[in-house]
Amino acid sequence: MTSQEALFNYSLRLGDTSIILAQRLCEWTGHGPFLEEDLALTNIALDIFGRGKALLEYAAKVEGKGRTEDDLAFFRTDREFFNTLITELPNGDYAKTIIRQAMIDCFDLAFYTALANSKDETLAGIAAKSIKEITYHKRHSFSWVNRFGNGTEESFNRLQQGLDEIWAFTGELFEMNETDEILIKEGIAVDLNLLKADWEKEINQLLTKANLVIPETLFMQKGSRKGLHTEHLSYILAEMQSLPRMHPNAKW
Amino acid sequence: MSKDSQGPLWEVFVQKKAGQPFVHCGNLHAFDKEMALQNARDLYTRRGEGMSLWVVPSTAIVASSPEDMGSFFEPSNDKIYRHPTFYQIPDGVGHM
Hints:
B: alpha+beta; three-stranded antiparallel β-sheet
């Protein structure tokens, strides 16, 4: 693998992770628990879409084959997507959406803070812009975890249920492969091993405050780094891609 | 949701720039202070409308009623001497 290919893979992975998560969150638009919260989550989704667009734009540029960010988003199949599995999981109820978001926000804040020091100027620039956005996303999701965990018996049970369903997908956030190895040597990528201890500590504190118990799962799901996904990705892609595929040159 | 459970009402005040007054801009629903502040941020400052926020439980606001209008406000109509129109206000004073 050349370092150009690695940089393409890396930008693609980050971009895919952003747009699939944003697409998932947007499913809540018009269905939020109440108007204010509906807007809050949609707002967060739009921040994440913005980041995804910038990353895919960069991936397309690095690839240098004349593809655009739209080509990458709308004209690839599920095996060509590299988003982390946790982002493609169905939203479930609001508690599950929130607990997943808290896991991801906690990871993303540490990740993009580190990526802001990347030797790659474009990635560093996108990361620097994202830090403020994610700081707010995390404040939002963490305060909801606390609220559900210390709310009623039902809100707590739903939160615990959500955690049970997503926990096995958190390990993959830290998985690395050849792409990472090449780019870490060049000072471009973030060494995910260095983020893990802090993430675990912070998540433990959050879960303890919300009275949650981490499920006893030894097995962690993985596959997305190789383009292997859950059955949920094809459906979300079908919804996301159907319009541009039907009308490839449509303009607003 | 089976019943109306949007939470109590809060009033939102936005300050555009440091030093300027906080201006009432609307209200929202929220269950606690932190949620009220976050919702205010998302509903009222998404397009750079301000740099500081107040949220106040609507029940904490004491308002005059329409019946008070006569006794409260009309006596000031014929007392021109209460208005500082006899002074030149220096330019540097700003919002007065």
